[in-house]
Write a structure and sequence with these properties.
The protein is mostly helical and 161 residues long. It is 65% helix and 9% strand. The chain is globular, with a radius of gyration of 19 Å. The protein starts with 9 loop residues before the first helix and ends with a helix.
């Protein structure tokens, strides 16, 4: 796959832009897309999407929660959460019930079958993550994570869309 690089006339097209900033953002997005796509392929035999695996992981790690809380944690729309939960519930991986704290709302919990599946998901994914990130030293990984946190804070604190 060719590396993302800006055209030679980038500065002429956008004189106020930073070519390295653009290249960094585009490469970050490409890397995330590649990882998400590969994760989806790895999970296909388990019948779980990458997003479904994230839902199961949240429920396993944090216990039952409302669909809206899941949406906030995963940064997806309510409609997306509903679709994910419908799929996971059909497979018996999660169960929805009345929320004991708010009878108008729902609570979602992982089932025993879901616990088995999330363990399989994590075994598969964490093994691949270790291999993918093995091109970096532990110190480089710590720096990589810290840099991402700084960028995330900058994006989150920005007033612009």
């Amino acid at each position: 796959m060719p590396k993302i690089q800006m055209p030679d006339d980038f500065a002429e097209q956008t004189p106020d832009a930073n070519i390295l900033a653009t290249e960094a953002v585009m490469n970050t997005i490409r890397t995330a897309d590649m990882a998400f796509e590969r994760i989806g392929r790895l999970l296909r035999p388990l019948g779980v999407s990458a997003a479904g695996g994230l839902v199961l992981g949240q429920l396993r790690d944090h216990g039952p929660m409302s669909p809206s809380e899941l949406g906030e944690r995963l940064i997806v729309t309510r409609a997306t959460v509903t679709g994910l939960l419908d799929s996971l519930e059909r497979r018996g991986l999660v169960a929805r019930s009345a929320n004991p704290d708010d009878r108008r709302g729902l609570s979602v919990a992982i089932t025993p079958t879901g616990l088995t599946v999330i363990q399989q998901v994590r075994t598969i994914i964490h093994g691949r993550e270790t291999a993918w990130m093995g091109v970096l030293t532990q110190a480089e990984l710590q720096t990589y994570i810290a840099l991402h946190h700084r960028i995330q804070d900058s994006i989150a604190g920005s007033d612009q869309a």
